[in-house]
């Protein structure tokens, strides 16, 4: 499997992103298609395998499919599974009898399955939708063979979230440097707050923390080299990133490995935590409108002046076509619809925590938070995805996720941990 790295995006590049949340493993094949094997396709039905198990995105997708049925007469039969279960068992699912279309992630995660022959090229779809997306988003949707395999729907940045009222009440100022961040954490702890909410039970949130510290410390180029398996995990630069994280770790919420991201978010909602490093989807947990209005975020502070805050982690989610869809014609029509600004607007109406991937989407109804997210992404010098999308999924799931949880439990012994990561990386990246 070829190494994959993202080209940097210029400041004028409109919305190129990707990043997120998931793990990959063979798992027990509990996932199955709605229709099952051996069933004939209903020309008026297309099946979709969905990882949108949380209430907000689940409703948003349901709204899209209802609008599509009204327009086309085609029913979308959705097979929703728990988000993490879907990721853990995606490999077995795609090799079995998958649904016609399935939710997935752009970049390496898409390329991995495209390269394995577990997805169908959709160049015919892109002939219809290509005018809706900037070149950067088009590049993001292609496999290593140059063919299209992905239809992007939305994107969002990772940042440090906080309650405006808490900062105002306590007199806190938004930190722009590492020293300011550490000083703020110390003050929050004195004030009886959890400085940084943290939940890593599902093993992916910690990947995002490492990404921020690494590309702020060592820059975008080194981060991309490390994710591609080209740089060494025993490099002094990586050790420096972990040393900085160890300095910040005492200000993270205790017991993180036993807590979900949703539970961690509730400590921010209840004003028990001062900050939370996550994607804008954290807003899903702010169900009260007044609380939502009180939510704000800032870019992870500068660590090395040479790199400043020029890199933004911006995940992009969307759809792929399975390798042997039972109703390919209907699936292609659905994907063409999902690649329109109209479909994106329907989604965003129910899930205002992300921004549209299309460059011609209507942004006039964006909230202040969405406008800020859009500006952060479109103004970035470099955009990354997320460790489990910028690197080999087998490496991040079997090596990095348990390694980072081990570090969180006990930050001592960093050198031996990094040596272990490097040994396993060499083995994995040497395989096809």
Q: Cα-atom Rg, whole angstroms?
A: 21 Å
* Termini separation: 5 Å
Strand order of the largest sheet: 2-1-3-10-4-11
- The percent range for helix content is 40-55%
What's the pLDDT, averaged over the residues? 88
Number of strands: 12
Q: Can you count the helices?
A: 18
- Please state the structural category: alpha/beta
Proportion of β residues? 5-15%
Which term fits the overall shape?
Answer: globular
* Biggest sheet statistics: 6 strands, mixed
| Order of helix and strand elements from N to C terminus | EHEHHEHHHEEHHEHHHEHEEEHHEHEHHH
Q: Indicate the low-confidence ranges by residue numbers.
A: 1-30, 35-39
Would you write up a description of this structure?
By secondary structure, this protein is α/β, with parallel strands linked by helices. It has 18 helices and twelve strands. The chain has a six-stranded mixed β-sheet with strand order 2-1-3-10-4-11, sandwiched between helices. Helix 1 (55-72) runs antiparallel to helix 14 and helix 5 runs parallel beside helix 13 (328-338). The relative contact order is 0.21. The model is unreliable at 1-30 and 35-39 (pLDDT under 50).
């Amino acid at each position: 499997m070829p190494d994959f790295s993202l080209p940097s995006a210029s400041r004028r590049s409109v919305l190129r992103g990707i990043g997120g949340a998931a793990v990959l493993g063979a798992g027990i094949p509990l996932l199955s298609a709605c229709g099952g094997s051996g069933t004939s396709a209903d020309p008026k039905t297309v099946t979709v395998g969905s990882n949108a198990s949380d209430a907000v995105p689940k409703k948003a997708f349901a709204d899209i499919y209802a609008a599509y049925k009204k327009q086309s007469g085609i029913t979308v039969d959705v097979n929703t599974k728990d988000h993490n279960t879907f990721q853990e068992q995606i490999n077995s699912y795609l090799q079995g009898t998958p649904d016609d279309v399935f939710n997935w992630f752009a970049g390496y995660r898409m390329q991995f399955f495209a390269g394995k022959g577990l997805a169908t090229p959709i160049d015919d779809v892109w002939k219809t939708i290509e005018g809706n997306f900037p070149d950067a988003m088009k590049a993001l949707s292609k496999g290593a063979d140059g063919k299209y395999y992905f239809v992007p729907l939305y994107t969002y940045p990772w940042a440090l979230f906080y309650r405006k009222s808490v900062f105002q009440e306590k007199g806190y100022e938004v930190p722009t440097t590492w020293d300011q961040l550490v000083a703020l954490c110390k003050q929050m702890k004195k004030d009886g707050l959890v400085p940084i909410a943290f939940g890593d039970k599902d093993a992916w949130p910690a990947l995002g923390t490492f990404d921020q510290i690494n590309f702020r410390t060592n820059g975008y180029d080194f981060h991309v080299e490390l994710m591609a398996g080209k740089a060494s995990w025993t490099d002094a630069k990586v050790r420096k990133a972990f040393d900085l994280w160890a300095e910040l770790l005492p200000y993270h919420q205790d017991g993180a490995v036993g807590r979900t991201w949703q539970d961690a978010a509730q400590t921010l909602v209840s004003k028990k935590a001062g900050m939370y490093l996550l994607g804008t989807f954290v807003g899903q947990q702010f169900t009260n409108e007044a609380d939502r209005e009180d939510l704000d975020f800032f870019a992870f502070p500068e660590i090395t002046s040479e790199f400043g805050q020029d890199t933004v982690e911006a995940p992009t989610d969307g759809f792929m076509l399975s390798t042997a869809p039972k109703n390919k014609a209907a699936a292609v029509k659905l994907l063409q619809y999902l690649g329109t600004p109209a479909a994106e607007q329907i989604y965003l109406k129910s899930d205002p925590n992300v921004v549209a991937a299309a460059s011609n989407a209507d942004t006039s109804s964006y909230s202040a938070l969405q406008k800020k997210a859009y500006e952060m992404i479109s103004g970035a010098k470099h955009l990354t995805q997320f460790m489990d999308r910028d690197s080999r999924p087998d490496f991040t799931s079997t090596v990095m996720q348990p390694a980072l949880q081990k570090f969180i439990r006990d930050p001592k012994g960093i050198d031996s941990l990094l040596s272990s990561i490097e040994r396993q990386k060499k083995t994995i990246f040497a395989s096809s």
